[in-house]
Amino acid sequence: MSEGLRERKKRETRLRISDMATGLFMARGFDNVTVAEVARAADVSVNTVFNYFPTKEDLLFDRQDEVVELLGKVMRERRPGESAVQALRRDFLDALDTGDWRYGFHEGSDAFPRMISASPALVARLREMNELRMEALTRALADEADADPDDLTPALVAGQICATLHTLTTHAVQRVLAGESVAAITPDLREHADRAFRLLESGIGDYCARRTE
């Protein structure tokens, strides 16, 4: 079904507000920009901003739902015979090779973490997003494995996977913030990732492997 005029205008307005907000936050710092200033820059009212973004943090993390659901989506779409760990390893390395943003590490990725680290509100929001992502992966694993409600395995597996990904991306971002280029870091990060996922596989192994036909 094609997008109607009303829906297109709403999408364009939301994007304009988010783009204006991100530009202001990056230039001046999250805590130094008010929602009223974002509204003026986007040529909308403050109420309109809050109609699209319930909190100021939502202006920056406008793709939160996509980030939170990513790991579960990758796991649900894994290939026949592929375990959750194998699928997530493949997707992480693909993002690394293609320079995609979805794991928080890409060319020009230094400004965003600098801005977040300078704002306690954003640090708290990012921590909340990481927790939500782990919960979403836990649910996906439980569904795909048809786990009993009392089975802790999905939560244990999700915790190990998320901790591994967090460690890898944090290491990469810290090196970028120290002045290294993404191109220089990528080979080392790929080696670290290979080692990390091998460690996961030796412990988690074939848990939740998709059946072959």
TrEMBL record:
Cross-referenced Pfam families: TetR_C_14, TetR_N
Residue ranges annotated for the HTH tetR-type domain, each copy included: 11-71
Keywords: DNA-binding, Transcription, Transcription regulation
InterPro entries linked: Homeodomain-like_sf (IPR009057), HTH-type_TetR-like_transc_reg (IPR050109), HTH_TetR (IPR001647), MftR_C (IPR041347)
Membrane-spanning ranges: none
DNA-binding region as annotated in the record: 34-53
Domain of life: Bacteria
SUPFAM superfamilies: Homeodomain-like
Name this protein carries in UniProt: AcrR family transcriptional regulator
Phylogenetic classification of the source organism: Bacteria, Bacillati, Actinomycetota, Actinomycetes, Streptosporangiales
